[in-house]
Amino acid sequence: MSQVQLQLESHPHWPAVNAIYHKLQSAGYKAFLAGGCVRDALLGVPANDLDVATNATPDQIEVLFDKTVNVGKAFGVMRVLVAGADIEVATFRTDGDYGDGRRPDYVQFSSPQEDAQRRDFTVNALFYDLVAQKVLDFVEGEKDLRLRVIRTVGDAEKRFQEDHLRLLRAARFVAQLDFSLDSKTSAAIEKMAPLVKTVSGERLRDEMGKLLKSPAASKGLQIMQTTGLLQELFPFRLRDNSWVHNYEAKDAWQLLALFLRKAPREDLGRAIQLLRLSVKEQRAIQKAWELWQSPELFFKRRRGEQLQSLVEPGNLFALKVLLTEQKLAEEIQSLLNDWGAWNFTLPKPFLNGEDLLGKLSGKHIGLCLAEAFNEQLERQLESRDKALLWLQNYLQRNAKG
Fold first, then answer.
1. What's the domain count of the chain?
2. For residue 362, what are the domain limits?
3. Is 32 helix (H, G, I), strand (E, B) or coil?
4. 342: enclosing H helix or E strand
5. Of the residues 199, 228, 243, the one at which a domain ends
6. DSSP-assigned beta bridge partners for residue 81
7. According to the model, what pLDDT value does residue 344 have?
8. Are residues 69 and 197 in the same domain?
């Protein structure tokens, strides 16, 4: 058995893919594994997904399998649910013109050879025949894998004109695979870099998240700089495009927060809007950015306020990053120890608005409750009874003053 086959069979979704494959074969259809999973198997690394390509049409796939999902039937893309897995099964196709710089206006179902020609990069245009246990390569993708180079299938400018996101995907694959970029592909990106601004924010956000998560993210960012993509999307990074991955950054918003860490305030706002981040992600990144600008100011606040701020994911993430960098380490560790003593969550306040009815009004109610909660978090008030006694004294002090 080939090493490629062994690598593919080690995937947790292999039983589902094997079942789909044999069902297609027994019904008289061709079927191959396709794309990134073949590339990764040749590189000896685990694949994220196992995708199947076939000459069965979407209608025929729907008839053949009990559970299918139409995710792009017009483009020949279906998902088959079997053996607890969700597997993409796509029909071999050729693409028509790309009127919107994102997807083809129409497709025609075709052959594996023609299907390979419409894909983005040669290393992503490989197929694997499970019966023959061999790779089918119509675009010299295996050669480029050996050379460790990212190169478009066919004419680079045409590939990028079809889908403008491919401009950024080239940099991402350089980062993900730690490859170099083919010179003609690089020249085409440099020429067409302004088109990247036509890509939707959601697609840019997802691609940047993948790039920054990659082992060679610095390399990908350098490609963005030399080809002009950085100038188009994040010009503030031209001043300092360095990148050091921090193990605390696991989610996409955390990686983007690190990427935007040194952005001037106006550039931060523009980048957040460009990437179409959710309100929750925007808030987290802004909180992290603000804390990183003046961490000393954060620690001038009283401990109760510091603890309350940790319910904001951005604040907590920013502090953990600073701790790994040995900045204000003693202060941060002390705060995190206190946070742990509260089981990493805020307790229920001993006092509430009903306790102040008829005693205070307007903003004074909020001020009193805030003060009481800070005292509680700072372990000055350890029970509701003590909090009520504190309230009596607080009201007396305010009555006098």
1. 3
2. 353-400
3. strand
4. none
5. 243
6. 86
7. 97
8. no
Q: Look at residue 1 in the predicted model and tell me its pLDDT.
A: 56
356-363, long-range: CB < 8 A, 24+ apart: 356/391, 359/395, 360/395, 360/398
Instruction: Please tell me the distance from the alpha carbon of residue 207 to that of residue 217, in angstroms, as a whole number.
Output: 12
Rounded to whole angstroms, what are the CA distances from 265 to 225, 226, 269?
21, 25, 6
* Longest CA–CA separation in the chain, Å: 92
pLDDT score recorded for residue 203: 95
Question: How far is the C-alpha of 175 from the C-alpha of 213, rounded, in Å?
Answer: 9
Looking at the fold, whether 189 and 113 belong to one and the same domain comes out as no
For residue 113, give the DSSP letter: H
> Residue 278 domain-assigned?
no
CATH number of the domain encompassing residue 175: 1.10.3090.10
List C-alpha distances in Å: 389 to 361, 374, 376.
Answer: 19, 16, 13
Q: Which of 225, 243, 261 is the last residue of a domain?
A: 243
Let me know if residue 385 belongs to a domain.
Answer: yes
Classify residue 156: in a domain, yes or no: yes
What does the DSSP assignment read for 138-205?
SSSHHHHHHHTEE-BSS-HHHHHHH-THHHHHHHHHHHHHT-EE-HHHHHHHHHHGGGGGGS-HHHHH
Residue ranges in the chain modelled with pLDDT below 70: 1, 96-101, 104-107, 400-401
- Helix %, strand %, coil % for the chain, to 5? 55, 10, 30
Burial per residue of 151-190, b for 16 or more beta-carbon CB atoms within 10 angstroms, e otherwise: bbbeebbebbbbbbbbbbbbbbbbbbbebebbeebbebbe
Considering the entire predicted model, what is its pTM? 0.90
Q: Could you tell me which residues are beta bridge partners of residue 89?
A: 52, 78
> Cα–Cα–Cα angle for 122, 136, 1, nearest 5°?
120
End-to-end CA distance of the chain: 86
Answer yes or no: do 183 and 57 share one domain.
Answer: no
Tokens of 91: 């029909």
Res 398: pLDDT: 79
Q: Are residues 102 and 74 in the same domain?
A: yes
